[in-house]
Amino acid sequence: MQKDLITKHGYEKIVEEFKRLLKEKSYWVKEKEIAAQLGDRSENAEYIAAKEQIRNTDKRLRFLDRIINNSEVIDISLIPHTRVNFGSVVVVEDLDTQKEKTFIILGTHETNPNENKISNKSPLGRALLNKTLNEEFQFSINDNFFEYKIISIKEYKFE
């Protein structure tokens, strides 16, 4: 099984969330135990709520655990960004509209379309990888064709 790429920054955020949820889970386990002492569990709202919270937390913990154990952590500062690479900020010109667009190439679990953070596995992410400055390229999504030109490439700096 091929591991998903993730930046060192993204990995640290996921590990941090995992640790926080473990602490939260222990809180809800205690709450469930306290609520269980109040009597009939079938009509005990606190017990039911705590049980549901534990179930949701466990589900998220399993998901985060899979990411932690099936990811290859990449320090993007060690990668050259003379070509589009994992962790690059790429400014392209849409050759049809002459408008510039900026994209950040990150791992699948770090994407955010609202911030133009796209996956290295997405159609555009795959098309951008290894392109050089001023290189023109085409790609398609759902029978829509796009033509772009690489305007700039640099390393993404996390805030």
Total beta strand runs = 7
Please write the string of helix (H) and strand (E) elements: EHHEEEEHEE
Largest sheet properties: 5 strands, mixed
Main-sheet strand order equals 5-4-3-7-6
Organism: Arcobacter suis CECT 7833
Family: Belongs to the GreA/GreB family.
Domain Transcription elongation factor GreA/GreB C-terminal: 80-154
Protein name: Transcription elongation factor GreA
Written overview of the protein:
The chain is of the alpha/beta class and 159 residues long. 38% of the residues lie in helices and 27% in strands. The chain contains three helices and seven strands. It has a five-stranded mixed sheet with strand order 5-4-3-7-6. A two-stranded parallel sheet has the order 1-2. Helix 1 packs antiparallel against helix 2 (45-69). It is elongated and about 70 Å long.
